[in-house]
Structure formats: C-alpha cells, structure tokens
Amino acid sequence: MKEINKESKVDEIKISGDENEVKPCGRALIPFLVFVGVYLGSGIILQARGVEMAFYQFPAPLAVVIGVMSAFVLIKGDFNEKFDTFIRGCGDSNIIIMCIIYLLAGAFAAVCKAMGGIDSTVNLGLTYIPSEYLAAGVFIISGFIATATGTSVGSAAAVGPIAIAVAEKSGTSLPLMMGCVLGGIMLGDNLSIISDTTIASTRTQGCEMKDKFKLNLWLTIIPAVVTVILLIVFGKPETTVQAGNYDFNIVKVLPYLLVLVSAVAGVNVFIVLIAGIIFAGGIGIFYGDLNLLAFSKAIYSGFTGMTDIFLLSLLTGGLAEMVNKAGGISYLLVNVQKFISGKKSAQLGISALISITDIAVANNTVAIIINGEVAKRLCYKYKLDPRRSAALLSTFSSVFQGLIPYGAQMLIVTSFASGKVSPLDVLPYAWFIYLLAISAIVSIFVPFSDGLVRKEPWDFEHQTVASKVLKANAAE
Questions:
Q1: Which is it for the CA torsion 179, 185, 188, 189, positive or negative?
Q2: What is the pLDDT of residues 359-396, one digit of tens each?
C-alpha cells in the first residue's frame, strides 16, 4: 500500500495544476487554437455557401492533425522529443480506455439496430401512447432511445421521421414535436452510460460512469418531469387520432435494459457492453434477423462507425500532451484562476469553458476532450469532486449542442420536415434543454444533486472514492 500511496502523490502533483512544475506559456496554446480555428472556420465558410451539415463536412480528425503539425512547428525543442511526447499522449491509459469503449459502444448500437431493437422500441412506445399525449410520448421515447443507444444523432434519425409523420397526422405543431425529439435525444446523450459525452467526461476526470450517471440523474429528473407536464398540458394535438399500431417485439428491447441496469449497478463497462453485444446478437440470430456472418459484420460496422471519434480522441490526447508539456495548460489555468476563488466559482468556470467551446466547435465530445485536463486540474486545486466536474462537462456541452442551430442534432431533426421548419422555429420549443440548464446552474449554488458526493467523498490523494481506499487499507 505504501508504494501505491507514493505513486498517487506523484500523480496528484501532475494533476494539481501546480504552475511551478511547468512554466506557463501562452504560445503553447496556439496549436489548440489552430485546431479549433480550422474546424470552426471551415464550418462557417461552408455554412455561408449553403452547404448542408456545414460544420460536419470537414473531418474533425484532420483538423486535429493540422493542429498537431502546428505544434511541431511552434513548440520549441528537439523533434524526437516532441514526437515522444505526442506518442505518450496518444497512448495515455485514459485515452486508450476511452477509445476501446467507443468501439464497443458502436458495436452494441450497430448490432441492436441490425436486429431491429431500435424499431421495436420506438414502435412499442407509439403503439401504446394515447393520442392526446403524443408530444410527451415522443419526448419520453426519444429520451429512452438516446439513453439506451448512447447516440443523440442516431436517435434523431430513428425517431425523427416517425415523430414528424405522427405530428402531421394528428395536427400537432411541427416545431413543438421537433422540440420534443431534440429535448429527448439530448437528455439521453447527457444521461447515457455509453454515450461519447459520458465516456469522455468520466475518463478525463478519472471517475466512474455509474457515479456520473447518478449525479446527472438528479440534475435531469426535475427538468424531465416538468417538461412532460408542460407537454401534456400544452402539447395536445388539434385532432384526435390513434398513433397507430406498429410492429414491435418486446424481446428486442431487452438488450437496452440489460446495459442500462447492469451499468448503473456498477458492473464493469467492458463486461456490460460485451454482454450487451452478445445478447443482442443472440436475439437477432434466434429471430432470423441475423446470422453469424451478419452479426460479425454488424459488430465491425459499429467499430468503423466510431472511427472519427476514435481518431479524434487519440490525436487530441497527443496534442494535449504536447501543449501541456510546453506550458499551455498551465498558462490557461493561471488566467482562469484569476476569476476563481472556490468551489462554486470553479464550477461556474468549468461550465463557462465547456459552453463556449461547444458553441465554437459544435461537437460536445470534442469540447469535453479539449477542456477535460483544465477541468481536472481545477478540481484538484479547489477540492471540487471530479464526479461533479464530469456531470457539469456533460450537461453544459449537451445543453449548447442541442441549442446551436448548426449542430448535427438540430440539423438532422429539422431535415425531416423538408424545409417546412427551420432551426430557429424549433428553439422556442426546446423546453427540456432550457430547464436542464437552469437545473445545472441552480445545483452549483444549491447542491441538491450531490447526495452521492456527500455520502461517498472523494479522496484527492489517491484519486478515487474514499471508501475504496478504506477497503484497500482494510484488506492489508
């Protein structure tokens, strides 16, 4: 145990944000600015030219590569030394774990889709939702699908067309129905155990997904309930029609429930995802939707579908390590800390940083990866629980990702309306997202969501929950 303690103290020094360790250097941040500038600039230019999904045309990993190239040019030192630093950042254990989870999450989502899991879940809900509660039902279905699959974009593509058709048939306002879909998918993106947002926020802060889920659940539940009530009262359709009888198979919903329940119960995320993949594949083979070859192809399709975020995380890890060693992170911390005096202002600072970054890059996972190291250092300097930081990173990146008119989620949802509705028409109806932002801000000053943090405090010396340290000591 003494050796573990010694290693933990060394790690703490690296994380604590001690500006004496590396001399702050503003110039070292330029490669990050190049990355963001290329990514953001290309989106603005393409948007001005009327290109569809403008902010998603230029590959984000390539933008990182350009940032890395600028780092090799601008950061002083021997090329071999800089290359070693870059590789060390790419190979950081948190980055590698994050990337492997991405692959497994992609495989799970792809297998579930191939065996009809998404269609069955959507159709199950729409079959039993009374017509007067269609808007609230679509919000709930969107939230469940996004929570289960871990993808807001995929959930928008799955639920969006059906929601639009139901709205037109029932006489429900199209912008309102789109606001329901948008709110639901961002609820799931923020809450899901297997979403990119959760994976990035927990790995960068060094905490467990189930703990972040519990904190986020308390931030989310009140806005969700209020949204459902508002939709029941104000979201009634002009005409009364049946939503329709859709084909579904309740068994095909079970893999999602398995992953959700087992992950929240604290089962290792790798075991959860592998079990989910095998279970979903077994159901698909049993019902004839898949054979072994199709099952294998679905898994690989899920892997390849995560290529962008995999490369993005890997390369950004290398870039961040170069910037960190050159003093860029220390420079940012020195300046951010001028406005921070304690835990509350640290939370406000982290929330502001992630919000501004997401508005700039239009990608909540990218925004989290960029700000993860700064947020973690602020946590250790001001003794802010990293689980709380992870919850804020996830929540505020999801809030602004859902609201920006040029975000993928908004663009996909509105695309199903064939030009009848613009993103600006939907914004007034994104009720849940506004309520979520209010809930998160209030929680900074009134810590109503921090029951877990108080019950199981964080041990900053050992970088884990205090109860685990006590168990380890008792085991000796």
A1: negative
A2: 766 678 878 888 888 899 899 989 999 999 999 999 99
